[in-house]
Amino acid sequence: MHRTVKDIQKAFSSDRTTADDTLRWALGTFGDRIGIASSFGAEDVVLIDMAVKINPAVRIFTLDTGRLHQETYDVMDKIRERYSINIEVCFPDKHKVQEMVEEHGVNSFYQSPELRRLCCGVRKIEPLLAKLKELDAWVCGLRQEQAVTRTDIKKIAFDPLNNILKINPIDDWTESDVWDYIRENNVPYNALHDRDYPSIGCAPCTRAIQSTEDIRAGRWWWEDPAKKECGLHGRTK
Ligand code: SF4
């Protein structure tokens, strides 16, 4: 990255506060050195729709852990067709997956937090870090109200470990804002959202929630709510 964080904060003046302004500024500033990270949840499809309208050649990448729901693959293809875009798919290292599965079993993540983190590390974190090496900035659909672990999310954050800027254009959106956007713009979305899955990750680690539960209660539901992030967003928010 050629700019310092100070330069970037200066360039991103305080009057650019909407999601569209943030995204427009980020895509214009970083060109093909910025990518949108997408797991094709509601927030991600909003960002894709917004970004493609700003720059049809925007880079979009996803992590295919090998354990996703069929509905996630379905919406991935729908998005690809709807916007005529390429999606960069990042896969885990097959040797590491094989080693983990042979040593600990195919569903080892239920056995302990350590084995769950090992699986997220092999299937998600390592492929993500490899992709981030190609970029100066990445865009995420994190929102402050999503979970107790996300209340301090900002529109722009710097990750010194990976020397990369993280852009969260819809950090201050509510769930209603997200769904209003999807309906108004007729954006394809994951069918699981209509079956009480507000947050969607890998199939064995995601369940539907009750109306009284936190919107991320269905992710790694067997773990402590204050600690259950997969690590993708642990370094900087
Ligand atoms: S969410 Fe579950 S299946 Fe997916 S990488 Fe993490 S532990 Fe593995």
Estimated radius of gyration: 17 Å
The string of secondary-structure elements, in order, is HHEHEHEHHEEEH
Helix content: 25-40%
Quickly give the CATH architecture: 3-Layer(aba) Sandwich
**Main sheet record:** 6 strands, mixed
Going by CATH, what is the homologous superfamily? HUPs
Structural class: alpha/beta
Spatial gap, N to C terminus: 19 Å
Spatial ordering of strands, largest sheet? 3-2-1-4-6-5
Number of strands: 6
Count of the domains: 1
Provide a count of the helices: 7
For this entry, what is the oligomeric state of its chains?
single chain
Characterise this structure.
The protein is of the alpha/beta class and 237 residues long. The protein has a single domain (5-194), classed as HUPs (Rossmann fold, 3-Layer(aba) Sandwich). It is 37% helix and 10% strand. Strands 3-2-1-4-6-5 form a six-stranded mixed sheet. Helix 2 (19-30) packs across helix 3 and helix 3 (42-54) packs across helix 7 (175-184). The longest helix is centred in the middle third of the chain and has 20 residues, at 113-132. It is globular. The model has no long low-confidence stretch (mean pLDDT 90). Bound molecules: iron/sulfur cluster. Iron/sulfur cluster (SF4) is lined by residues 65, 67, 109, 116, 119-120, 123-124, 201-202, 204-205, 230.
